[in-house]
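dude i think i finally got it to work??
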Amino acid sequence: MSPADPEEFVSRFDAQPTRWSVVQRAHGNSLVGGSEARQYLVMRYSPAIRKYVRAITRDEDQADEITQDVIVRLLQGDFAGADPQRGRFRDLIKMAVRNMLRNMWSKKKVRQTVDYDVTAVAQPSDIGEDPVWDESWQRQLLDLAWSRLKEYQETHTGSMAHTILQLRTEFPDDSSEELALRLSQKLGKTASADQARQQLRRARVRFAEYLVAEVADGIEVPTPERIEEELSHLGLLDRIRDVLPPDWSIAGG
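look at this
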């Protein structure tokens, strides 16, 4: 069965533990695995938090300060009340960050200026569209998928997955022959155009699998329909649609 077959593709993210299982372990009464789970949440969410605060405040120091505050709360287990029935964990994190910013700016009596986009966190409700947070989270998911692809190449002899996909990203208009030449120069060994095409196809499928798995990991019940909805909402679906099986969103459903 090829990597792009629907049943295998869907089964790969079905087998992934959901983010909520980590959240529950991080905030459970048992000490077993709790510390590691909280550290994992910090590693997963802190880059997106910092990008989000930096985009709103345009202030490196405030971005560091708020991010550190959220990290401390995560490590202390302050999100024990997180409930998957109330929405995604990343949305809970976003609301916590927005509340921290509102409180900080209220104490400092901050007004709208070129440097501070007060309206970005002054909405009456934290529920709804938030392009700044979505962009931060999209970048985080992409970074996680790239990191997993790089790890795959480093741990699988003969794999060129990360290198060739990176080259395609940097040189989107290259022919297979040009891409093969760049790949040969990068790896220090000859790669044919046919080999470059095959490696690129496999790399794109694997990257799509990792991206789908990362999205699925943040959904309480990661059905293909919910995953597709989240991919679309974050502007990621079009990036991988052409390597997804035609009926991947209904396979196994």
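Confidence is low (pLDDT under 50) at residues 1-18, 111-116, 118-122.
im so relieved honestly
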